[in-house]
Amino acid sequence: MILAEVKPAARPLSPHLQIYRWSWTMAMSVAHRVTGTGLYLGTVLIAAWLVAAASGPAAFDTAQWIAGSFLGRLVLFLYSFSLIHHMCGGLRHFVWDMGKGYEPQTRMNMAKFTLVASVSLTVLVWIVALVLR
Q: Can you tell me the distance from the alpha carbon of 78 to that of 67, in angstroms, rounded to the nearest whole number?
């Protein structure tokens, strides 16, 4: 029995990243995923801090020293930025879930606002926290 040669179907290829022009909505989509991953990692650090607090004064003092160092504060700043940015991105998706904001210029403006709002709110939260401590 001789098998016939199978030819691939003539169909269009799926578009890929080399074809698309980078846009604000694409960048904020990637940033939303990255900040979501950052939230997982930051939550592990918060859990470690809670374990240190439950383990006794020596462990808690060590955790507080690490959190108060320059690197610790940088990690806390990035964690708070991730939290706020992810929240702003979630609000943008919520607006889309209501069927609004799909016009091209509105999508771009919402994506830009997500970044501006998250940076501004993060800085504001840290200024208030540092002033009130």
A: 13
| φ and ψ of 102, to 5 deg | -90, -5
Distances (CA, A) of 100 to 26, 82, 84, 94: 18, 25, 22, 9
CA-to-CA separations, 50 to 44, 56, 66, 84, in angstroms, rounded:
10, 11, 14, 22
pLDDT for residue 9 is more than 70? no
Q: Does the reported pTM lie above 0.85? A: no
Could you give the C-alpha distances from 111 to 25, 91, 97, in angstroms and in order?
A: 5, 11, 15
Task: Characterize 52-72 residue by residue with b for buried, 16 or more Cβ atoms within 10 angstroms of its Cβ, and e for exposed.
Answer: beeeeeeebeebeeeeeeeee
